[in-house]
Amino acid sequence: MALVPVEEALTRILKGAKPLPAETIKLQDGLGRILAADIVARRDQPPFYASAMDGYAVRHEDLNQVPVTLKLIGASGAGHGFTGMLKQGQAVRILTGAPMPKGADTIVIQEVTRIVKGGVEVLDAPAPGRNIRVRGLDFKKAEVLVPAGTKLTARDLGLAAAGNAAMIRVRKKPRVAILTTGDELAAIGTAPRWDQITSSNNQALSALVTAMGAEAIDFGVVRDDLKATTAAVKKAFNADILVTTGGASVGDHDFVQEALKRAGVKIDFWKIALRPGKPFMFGTKGKLRVLGMPGNPVSAIMCSLVFLKPLLHVMDGLPPDTGFGTARLAIDLPANDHRQDYMRARISNADDGTLLVTPATKQDSSMQRVMREADCMVVRPPHAPALEAGALVPILRFPAGI
């Protein structure tokens, strides 16, 4: 069976994938969610002409000759606006953010005034209209504050709140079921047998899915048994995506592919021209998409970044961003073989600010410490020629939280 190229594999995975439906949630629950509809301002901000400084609201025509003493007739504070009308020769004490009194057109800052008998003396005249925030200075009613497709941040939520958007429309979170297989795996916190290792894939992938804004459903570890694996696969049919790790090859204890077929999953392809991650598998059952990851921890994470991340983006109504960038090699690299290679690497900066990348000397797909210490992966296309230090190469950065 010929190995499927990485680009073709991704195209086949994304084919037919659609954004999930939208739902309405409270604004305070929106952090990290993907906006499905524009957030529109429900009022002007500020909703009135307001003072930008502490001082006195006056009529500029009363300042033709300074110093001048004006009669104080009241005060305007934030949330406690002055309701009267300012007339000739009068002033109103005003604080930052407070509404401008009717009849006033200028703010005199308090530093150029002094309280005297009968009112306030203005020692210096500002320009007309000075120190006033006009109505709608920040935004006006019906303006788009945050566009659809935005992954909501704290700043987005603050702006939306200022526009009085209590409820918002967001994409439903993709539900990702995670099924880990292997008799060699022991649950964390237990005492593994001498011939076992501690299961880590389900922990890492659950965190990765959560960091990408989806809902992770961890099915735990399933033993190497065809009946048990088939039953676990069927339990995942309510999810949008099923991710399996391990058991995807053709060894005596690899049952995932057969279990998927027995559960009615149509296998689209198996084995891709990728390192690490050659045994990767993809299948579908109705709207469910199944990504069969290798059991090696590095392979599972890397395949998730290359294939799961773009799929989640499409389900969120976003472009399938792959996150590629470029950097210059800090060391020489030999020629590559027929598989696209993803090499764990560290990023640094040269004295001139050039972005440099240094692949790790050991690239075994079981080495999680190397993966954790890496900043990115250097991507080497199939049959790439040998490269010398200084050559420009594509890199895949790890997203925040991954």
Quickly list its features.
single chain, 402 residues, alpha/beta, Molybdenum Cofactor Biosythetic Enzyme, Chain A, Molybdopterin biosynthesis moea protein, domain 2, Molybdopterin biosynthesis moeA protein, domain 3, 26 strands, elongated
The top level CATH class name of the largest domain: Alpha Beta
- Give helix % range: 10-25%
| CATH architecture term of the largest domain | 3-Layer(aba) Sandwich
| Uncertain spans | none
Please summarize the sheet with the most strands.
6 strands, mixed
Q: What is the CATH topology classification name of the largest domain?
A: Molybdenum Cofactor Biosythetic Enzyme, Chain A
SS class: alpha/beta
CATH superfamily of the largest domain: MoaB/Mog-like domain
Report on the structure:
18% of the residues lie in helices and 31% in strands. The chain has 4 domains: 158 residues, Molybdenum Cofactor Biosythetic Enzyme, Chain A; 54 residues, Molybdopterin biosynthesis moea protein, domain 2; 84 residues, Molybdopterin biosynthesis moea protein, domain 3 (Molybdopterin biosynthesis moeA protein, domain 3); 74 residues, MoeA, C-terminal, domain IV (Beta-clip). The protein is built from 7 helices and 26 strands. The longest helix has 19 residues. It has 402 residues and is of the alpha/beta class. The chain is elongated and about 95 Å long. The strands form 7 sheets. It has a 6-stranded mixed sheet with strand order 7-4-6-5-9-8, with no helix packed on it. Strands 16-13-17-21-20-18 form a 6-stranded mixed sheet, sandwiched between helices. The mean pLDDT is 94.
